[in-house]
Amino acid sequence: MNNIDPYKIYSKQKSIIEKRLFGLLKGSKPDSLYEPCRYILHSGGKRVRALLILLSVKAAGAQYSKGYNAAVAVEILHNFTLVHDDIMDNADKRRGMPTLHKKYDISTAILAGDNLIAVAYMNLLKDAGPYAGNIVKSFTKGIIEVCEGQSLDKEFELRNNVTLQEYLIMIKKKTAALAEMCCLIGGQIGGGTNKHLRMLKTFGRNLGIAFQLQDDLLDITGDETEFGKVVGGDLIEGKKTYLFLKALEIAAGNNKTMLLEVIKKNGIRKNQVGKYKELYNKLDIIKLTKQEVFRYTQKAVSAARKIEDDEARHMMIWLAESLVERSK
Amino acid sequence: MNNIDPYKIYSKQKSIIEKRLFGLLKGSKPDSLYEPCRYILHSGGKRVRALLILLSVKAAGAQYSKGYNAAVAVEILHNFTLVHDDIMDNADKRRGMPTLHKKYDISTAILAGDNLIAVAYMNLLKDAGPYAGNIVKSFTKGIIEVCEGQSLDKEFELRNNVTLQEYLIMIKKKTAALAEMCCLIGGQIGGGTNKHLRMLKTFGRNLGIAFQLQDDLLDITGDETEFGKVVGGDLIEGKKTYLFLKALEIAAGNNKTMLLEVIKKNGIRKNQVGKYKELYNKLDIIKLTKQEVFRYTQKAVSAARKIEDDEARHMMIWLAESLVERSK
User: Fold this and answer.
1) For chain A, which terminal residue's Cβ has fewer other Cβ atoms within 10 angstroms, N or C?
2) Would B149 be classed as within a structural domain?
3) pTM to 2 decimal places
4) Which of B30, B125, B137 sits opposite A125 (nearest CB)?
């Protein structure tokens, strides 16, 4: 495996996908619809979901190129979710740039998002071939889960009694379902056996959960300049993250009171972040969360180890491990 | 054909579709997502798009029942467009009830609409069988055209130099494309030949245009209580309808100035409606529009006449003629 340079392969495939993504809607009219669509597709991102498709195609025994259109499709779909989520969250910035509804307006952002869903399907179909029925079904099931997850997420903002278990159900739907769907679809396009598809789904799902827990963790452990967000931003906004709900589950006495304050006041002040970070440390929350991230990553890696294709296996393990080690 | 009672057949099929539509999301969780979805699906409507699917299935030589899931799918899709359009138009009421974003909130309405798109695909797939690739493609192309049409519609609100030709392109995308898509998909599900599909598309497209022009006409000629909207509402809101743009094309001198006032002032007062109705009559706009509605209806009817299946042919001609004669 010495001749496999995962980062090089990732970079190469990423640039292939981005080239397609950038060329896709060039010249499409009307501009009032497509200029916003192009804006969001050009706004960057790690393109991890596209990579999941490609690696899964390869894991199932086919060439990356068989999944290029589907890879473009999941990136478009992911960007649709960002556009609509940003409206719902009233977010001003995304990847350092104005969100779509801030650059244009809410109507434009709603419509651009809607159109992106359909454009995603159109691209998916190009790679679906004889398996179109199954592949479109997997894709659609993924969208439904994402919507259900997003709805739970919004619901949790208003509820004061969210449990850790409920939180895990929510992120499984909101984040892990899409990663699982990418792997499943890649496997289906690659003509994988049921055994392939099972492994790939396990890999995607667990990777997705690990990714989200790591994201929650980075809010506290991340480096402000590198992470690109305010450290403790989730606490400031009163978000019920894995760390917060785990702490609430463990804490008692004054510690519990302190945590309940966050819920009661719908967040904390910036100068209180340090105090809460200390509390998390005292309750071993950082360590416990890291262990969970590790546990889900290992589940993903175990599934990936069963992949016969050397390059796909190597890449999937590398991807799982680097997502956990990421600092942004 | 004396034994065919079109209204009876329509009513029967409508009630079959509604029963399915109402049962579809019963018990789906979370309620925060599905309660709004159920609300809009229960809000009524003529279910014309579902009927177009069923009649086209029959026209292609199959039984209505082969298209029930697809018929449900297009109704769901249509309702998604209503939910998102109502946000964009800041509409308070729809079919006499609060719009979704007024009953809940904008975030809920965005998300419910997104979910409905996916639920629509899921239902479509149930009837797509071996033709899934083609059918999903037709469906997706329809959604893209609707988005493009809606974007043009929003764009026209802000532009002062919209031409009649541009308006026709817009309604072809926003309204006629979905009707055409229903007929095409019905034909595909029914296993129709290319000749069937061509006829059905021609029927759907022309019916859709006639329907929209009739809608524009009813704003002026409709009976307030029966039509359910304020007569002249489009003029009051300054909408650039077929009637308005046709008048603008024909008018000169003082008449033209009077019309340009509508654009300049972004609409007129309610007590000015009578004056503009008079102007429309003076310019023969009502008559000219009726002629256009008739012309497009005849194109639809001509296409329908070529359908071999007696019941489908009879129903399609009846549908085209009754949409034109409708008063609401």
Assistant:
1) N
2) yes
3) 0.96
4) B137
